[in-house]
Amino acid sequence: MAASVYLAAGKATDSVTHGFLPAAARLALDVTLLTDRPPAHAGTHDGPIVECDVTDFREIVAAVGDEPAAIFSNSDFLQAPTALAASYFGLPAKEWRAATRAKNKALMRRHLASIDPVFSADARHVPPDAPYPLVLKPREGVASEDVFLVQDALELATRVDEIAARRDDPLVAEEYLPGRLHTLETLGDGRELRVLGSFRTTLSPPPFFVEERLEWAAPPPETPQILEQLHALGIGFGACHTEFVVHEGRARIIEVNYRLIGDHCDFLLADLLGMPLFEQILTVHLGGRLDDWHGAGERHAIAEPVIADRSGTLTAAPGSLRLDYGPVRLAYRPQRAVGDAVAVTRTNRDYLGTVRAIGPGPDEVNAALARFRAAHDWTIT
User: Fold this and answer.
1) pTM of the full structure
2) Which CATH number is 119-175 given?
3) What share of the chain has pLDDT > 70, as a percent?
4) CATH T-level fold of 4-93
5) What span, in angstroms and rounded, lies between the C-alpha atoms of 151 and 128?
């Protein structure tokens, strides 16, 4: 009898639709999709789709049948309720307090204060002596949405009012941390935490924080400092995507996303490492051990989104593609379809699609990316 897995999801994502669900099929798992948005997942899953308030662990528990083998989510917002539901059934799970700390940026700063103190305050109650510039952001936000660098109290108040007109969730203002931006990708099985690798991230000019490119690189020498901070947060099970800066020998966390890296970098990571990444994550949630894999070797990789430069309607764009440019293997997956309305937000939501390239070195990969972009059009009218 196949193991019964419950996958909790909010909006439909490529990570779930093209990553975890096919991986579950390859593992011969019976998957029930729990979601508060069934229409968004119509046609993405051959198994049961059950409507459920997945933000409430009690509703997840009520929706789960007898003898589940795993309860899992790859959503930022659903890590804590999923962890609580899995714990209710005695299943392998992330520690719910750690998931809560990772999601809530104010709690994260408070918990790490003895290791790495960073100024953080409710955005409506920032003291006059705050160390400007500050980064204003939603306390539990994602995708660089409504994240701004503000230079003084007047700009802070203006931005807070502007954001409050769009959303009513809490905002925080944090000390701006200078340095080179990196990611750390980790995977744990409850016995060991393994570093999968690291990307260097290029951001748009301030005051915005749009991720414009992620380039594979060896984890910086300061990485043990980040692992120490993750340990202090209680993070060590399943996939985790951490963003941090390094400045003058000091590594400092920007934010922790207690799930797999997104924006198609998860597919790039799986290809680069030559491992069944999605299956491995599901396996640890089933109580299995981490497998050995050979790693990236000497290869280089870049993920580069195509970013909308104006609002309008997308009238021309390529579909999904896989190409070889000499020794470089390139893949493109759209995030917007022709006919979609596009509104520029200066966030990661402006991505029209992402180009992923893997090759022997930076020169070859960059040349292939340039050739691909020159050969295709993305037209917004």
Assistant:
1) 0.95
2) 3.30.1490.20
3) 100
4) Rossmann fold (3.40.50)
5) 13
